[in-house]
Amino acid sequence: MRRLAFSAAVLLAIAFNVPSPGHAADWPERPVRVVIPFGAGSATDVIPRIVFDQVSRELGQQVVVENRGGAGGTIGEGSVAKAEPDGYTFLTTSSAHTIAPALYSKLSYSPTDDFATVAAIGSVPNVLIIAPSRGIKTVADFVKEGKANPGKLTFASLGVGSAVHMSAERFRFSAGYDALHIPFKGGAEALNEVIAGRVDYYFCPIATALPHIQAGKLLALAVSSPTRAPQLPDVPTTLEAGFANSDYTFWIGTFAPAKTDKAVIEKFRAAIAKALGDPAVKAKLEAIGAQPAALSGDAFDQQVKGEFGTYADFAAKTGMKIN
C-alpha cells in the first residue's frame, strides 16, 4: 500500500509540473491567434497588424490575425471569452469594448469578468470633419448652427457604440444641440457622404480623413482626443474649444481569456511593448495618424475598468441602447 501511495504521489507531482500548452517557459510553441472583432481595413484592424508583424519576430512564432466582425464587436469578443485560456487565443479590440455592457443587456459573455488585460497598443484621434462648402470655419460656429437648427444636422457613424459614434455623441451632448444619427456599414461610405454634403459631419479616424483634408475636400474643425493630433497641429481639441467632458479616447488594446496563465500574459505584453518601441513600427503608426501606447499594462487595466462605469453613466444619460 505504501508503494502504491508513493507512486501515486510521484505521478501526481509529475502531472502538475508538466508544462501546459500555455506555459510561459515554452510559450509560444505554435502560431498565436488574435481575434479582431471588426472588419478588415478599419483602424482597429490596420494598426494592430503593423504591431503584430513585429511581435511575430520578437516571439519567433507567427501572430495570426483573424477578423470576426459583427454586432458592434460583441461576436468576436464572445468567441474569445469562450476560448481555451491556453495562451494561443487573444482579443484585440477598441474602446467600444467598454461601452458594450451598457448597450447590450443580453451579452453571452461578461466584458468585465471574462478577460484579462494584456496591453494597450495605441490610440487614434477622431477628427470632426465637414464639407468646406458649408461655409463654417470654426467649431464654435458649427455648434451655433446646431443650436439654431435643432435636430436638422446629420452625422455619420459606423453604428451605435462605435468609436466614431461615441466621439460624436460625447461632443454633441457636451455642446448641447440635437442632431440626427445616420449609421453606415463602412467608413468609406460615410466619408463620401460627408464630402458630397449629403451628411453634415463625421468624427472620422484621422488616418482616413487626412488625405481629404490636405486635398481641401474636407475641413477639420476639432479632434476628440485629449491632446492635439501631431498631423493636425493647428486643429484644437474639443476640450480646448470649450466643451467640457467632450473628449473621447479611441484606444486599441489586447486582452486574453480571463484564466490565461499570467506568466504568458506578461511575456506577450513584453513582446508588444518591445514592438511598439521599434523605430520602424513607430514610423508606420505615425504615418497613419496612430499614437503608440504610453500606458503600462497596469495603467491600461485601470483605465479600462474606469471606463466601464463612465460610459455606463453616459449611455444612461443619452439613452443609448441596442437591446
Keywords:
2 domains; 6-stranded mixed beta sheet; 323 residues; D-Maltodextrin-Binding Protein, domain 2; alpha/beta; 5-stranded mixed beta sheet; globular
Can you describe what's shown?
With 323 residues, the chain is α/β, with parallel strands linked by helices. The model is unreliable at 4-22 (pLDDT under 50). It is built from eleven helices and eleven strands. The radius of gyration is 22 Å and the shape is globular. The protein folds into two domains: 31-123 and 250-318, 3-Layer(aba) Sandwich (D-Maltodextrin-Binding Protein, domain 2); 126-223, Periplasmic binding protein-like II (D-Maltodextrin-Binding Protein, domain 2). The longest helix has 22 residues, at 297-318. It starts with a helix and ends in a 5-residue tail after the last helix. Helix 6 (163-175) links the parallel strand 6 (153-157) and strand 7. The strands form two sheets. The protein has a six-stranded mixed β-sheet, with helices on both faces. The chain has a five-stranded mixed β-sheet with strand order 7-6-8-5-9.
